[in-house]
Amino acid sequence: MQTIDKEKAVSMIEQAEKITFLTGAGVSTASGVPDYRSLFGIYTGIERPEYLLSQTCLLEEPKKFYSFVQTMYHPNAKPNTIHKKMAELEKSKNIWVISQNVDGLHKAAGTQHLVDFHGDLYDCYCTRCGQKVSAKTYLFSDRHDQCGGQIRPNIVLYEEGLKEQAIATSIEAVSKAELIVIVGTSFQVHPFCYLIHYASDTSEILVINESAVQLNREAYFLKEDAVKVFENIV
Ligand SMILES: [Zn+2]
């Protein structure tokens, strides 16, 4: 990867017309949402997160599932400069945001062309009657008061498959972009990181992250806190 400075990264984003952002936990830490690794750190030695966030745990030990998932909610978190600038760019450019985050902050910022690749914690429904339920209701109780069914967030659990529509839309957004910006992610989660294989040969790839990521093609790399980049985009 070719290391570049902040000014070059800002101008690449300002000049491109078709941009697809691939985002991860790093875009939400400035909003006070901890990344999974630090969240899981609390639970190390108690139970594996892969189990606590699995379909098996949801079905067989719903209380355990519920108490873990509750710790992932930060209902007072607000979109930060990164979320807001991405939403704002959509007004003048062809933008797509594909996010691994389940915190709903890109949506809260107003991004319309959005794929929540792993779902959205704030999109909850009753698994018995299918009715949509607010996250506030879910955080009060995981039992649906109308039918007694179990409420769950619409996030992709371990043992569950990704939504086909999310994959198809993401592939199209990546393949049509002239600039792909990977922001705030170590880009190691499969199959999210496979999306880059769909980039066209003529597209440019820019990585803005605290550490370098492994890619099998040419990319520009800026080692920086993404907030400092996005606050400079006009
Ligand atoms: Zn119900």
From TrEMBL:
Pfam families assigned: SIR2
Residues reported to bind Zn(2+): 126, 129, 144, 147
PROSITE patterns: SIRTUIN (PS50305)
Keyword Cell cycle carried by entry: no
GO molecular function, one term: metal ion binding
Key words of the record: Metal-binding, NAD, Transferase, Zinc
The enzyme's E.C. designation: 2.3.1.286
Top-rank taxon, per record: Bacteria
Signal sequence annotation: none
Keyword flag NADP: no
Active site (catalytic residues): 118 (proton acceptor)
Broadest EC class assigned to this enzyme: transferase
Protein name as catalogued: protein acetyllysine N-acetyltransferase
Organism per entry: Enterococcus haemoperoxidus ATCC BAA-382
Organism taxonomic ancestry: Bacteria, Bacillati, Bacillota, Bacilli, Lactobacillales
